[in-house]
Amino acid sequence: MRLVIARCSVDYTGRLNAHLPLATRLLVHKGDGSLLVHSDGGSYKPLNWMSPPCRLDVEIPDAESAAAGVLEHWRVTHAKTGDALLVRIYEVLHDTSHELGIDPGLQKDGVEADLQRLLAEQVEVIGDGLTLVRREFPTAIGPVDLLLRDPAGGTIAVEVKRRGDIDGVEQLTRYLELLGRDPHLAPVTGVFAAQEIKPQAKVLASDRGIRCVTLDYEGMKGIQSGAPRLF
């Protein structure tokens, strides 16, 4: 990635035309070929940019531009649309390049794996007297997130989601049908647990005899948010 702070003007031509007059800006030329033009404001959003696939060519300015003080032209052309971004560089204040390597991607807090782990440690959120049999209980159609036992010896299959919708209820229904055929597990009931459950999913779950539990993630981490946990 190349970071350049320069006094420059910018012209975009193509499906629309746009002009940025002469000012000091940050130019970010990324490894994927894209170019972003930033000012010291506007948060994360660039003033203008060119997304890949594109190419950047550095050109010597013509006599007229050179006489106006332009040092070089950066011409960025989109490979498919032909749109072009012309950056006229008048003065370079800073110019560095850095090899960032492969980015592992954003790891969000509160994903399903975190919820599943916390719920396995706090099965009392589902109900009193329950014990954990296993996380990721294997079945022929995929693993059940949590398998619990109630004090009467019954089995509870728990499907954990960040946001619960109809597809999650259908998934749990298939697990319940399969698990219910095992005499060592029957009778099997279902619990659909999520941080947020859509109204349509609640209606379908109720129709299928599945109980819904809304998870207070902050509370489960030990931060008392005051939000109700059960619906």
Comma- or semicolon-separated keywords:
single chain; 231 residues; alpha+beta; seven-stranded antiparallel sheet; five-stranded mixed sheet; 18% helix
Q: What is the C-alpha radius of gyration, as a whole number of Å? A: 29 Å
The secondary structure category is alpha+beta
Contiguous low-pLDDT stretches (5 residues minimum) are: 224-231
Number of strands: 12
> What's the number of helices?
5
Shape: rod-shaped
Mean pLDDT: 90
H/E element sequence = EEEEEHEEHEEEHEHEH
Major sheet: 7 strands, antiparallel
Q: In what range is the share of β-strand residues? A: 35-45%
Helix fraction by DSSP (H/I, runs of at least 4): 10-25%
Strand arrangement, largest sheet?
4-3-2-1-7-6-5
- First-last Cα distance: 50 Å
At a glance:
With 231 residues, the protein is of the alpha+beta class.
What order do the helices and strands come in, and which of them pair?
Blueprint: E1 2-13, E2 18-29, E3 35-38, E4 48-50, E5 54-59, H1 63-67, E6 72-78, E7 84-97, H2 112-121, E8 131-137, E9 144-149, E10 155-164, H3 166-179, E11 188-197, H4 199-207, E12 211-214, H5 217-220
Parallel strand pairs: 10-11, 11-12
Antiparallel strand pairs: 1-2, 1-7, 2-3, 3-4, 5-6, 6-7, 8-9, 9-10
Helix pairs in contact: 3-4
